[in-house]
Amino acid sequence: MRADPTSKTASKHGLARVRGRVLKRKRADVKEDETLTLDTQSLRLILAGVFADVSEAVIVTDVDRRVVMTNTAANNLFRYSAAEFAGLFTAELYERQQDFEELGATRYNAQADDVHRTYLMRYRRRDGSVFEGETTGGVIRDSEQGSPMFLGIVRDVSSRIATDKVLHALHQITSDPTRGFEQRQREIIELGAQHFGLPYGVVAQIVDQRYEIMEALSPDGSMAAGEVYDVSDTYCWHVLAQRGPFGVHHAAESQLCAHPCYEKFKLEAYLGAPIAVDGRVYGVLSFSSSLPTTAFGQRDYDLMGMFAQWLGHEIAREQDLTALRVAHERLHRLATHDELTGLGNRRLLVEQFDHELDRGHRYAHSLSVALIDFDHFKQLNDRYGHAAGDAALKLFARLARQTLRTSDTIGRWGGEEFLALLPETPLSAAAGTLERLIAAMRDTPLEIDGETIPLTVSAGVTSTRGDEAPEQVLKRADEALYRAKDDGRDRVHCR
């Protein structure tokens, strides 16, 4: 989750200088082997002056680990007033009692060395909220004989740690080959909504003024993919206007209080960034909430931009893969389909024939095979031209698709001849199907330049018999076709 903005921490060398200049002073009027012992009140006043304007939280405690001094940054970070902090037992500042006790045993005790080390700790504020604090601290003394005090300098690094975790999660999502695009996109949106504390997440594509929701995370269902708006009626217009991340943490108290989006959805908090795909603006990724939130910092805007950038890469990759799939499908179709009729070509038919024969043998299913040929096709071409012949072939293809089942296969075998494969179909049923196709052809004449041209086809059909080779089956179907031609055409012959 987002945390309070952070500032630059004081260094260990700074602590050493404080100890050297403030706590180990010699008095000029004492013997050379004597050292000055400052009382607690004097030391507190000195330290308060030294650390008053330091941007990190500074806390000084007595040997019992009760607070004797804090600076303004500490009061603000832990949300205690100076009066509330005074005398506070610092166990109250730790999320876990165990951490307080372990540090007391190893670092904050009279026997600890004077080396100030840096470590991470989870602290609890006065209101109960927890944050990650990068802490530099240890013992300070006025002399070897004096009573020690403990000093800690704390910097809130919750935002930095949360950002690191988010970037790691983003990498895991986008680098996992088992996740598809839809899943990756959804998980990126969910991750952003969780991190920013804004429950609504939207990926929108924007073309001119058209704003279309492509993916939506909407707990109450008020937003859904496919919804279209005018972009000027959305907060995303401001993202496009400034060509970068845009946010508002309390719309009711901003210039957006009269915005159409606020009037319609009552979204108080919004954070969005443009999505670029191949160098061009694709749309906007945004997160929002019906409740106000804390003001967004530069780290939030930077991370929001990174979310949109990662998502842009995902969209670009998906578009490239889609284009590649489409190109592959087109090439495959060109290689396996007849360009004129759109039916399968001889290559596809041979592959499908082998497949259906193998399946029929394996499961003891019947396979019927038919050869279909136009009657008097040469005369049609000679009298009306090849354009008429092409139109006749396309007409037959349309009628065949309408008559046959989706499980059947029909394709152009060569010239005006077609091959049909009817799996799991006995010979009698196959003959009935072909008779319906022949009747449809007979009842659908070709219209050329206002002239009606009757068309007919003949068919020969057979069924597989045991473990036959394709050539044997085709030979019988061809013989049946010639028999149909000899018997007067415009009919089906079975063999």
Automatic annotation (TrEMBL):
NCBIfam families with a match to the protein in the record: GGDEF, sensory_box
Lineage, opening ranks: Bacteria, Pseudomonadati, Pseudomonadota, Gammaproteobacteria, Salinisphaerales
Cofactor(s), names only, from the UniProt record: Mg(2+)
Listed EC numbers: 2.7.7.65
Molecular function per GO: diguanylate cyclase activity
Species of provenance: Salinisphaera shabanensis E1L3A
Pfam families: GAF, GGDEF, PAS
SUPFAM superfamilies: GAF domain-like (SSF55781), Nucleotide cyclase (SSF55073), PYP-like sensor domain (PAS domain) (SSF55785)
Protein name: diguanylate cyclase
Cellular-component GO terms for this entry: plasma membrane
GO terms, biological process: cell adhesion involved in single-species biofilm formation; negative regulation of bacterial-type flagellum-dependent cell motility; regulation of DNA-templated transcription
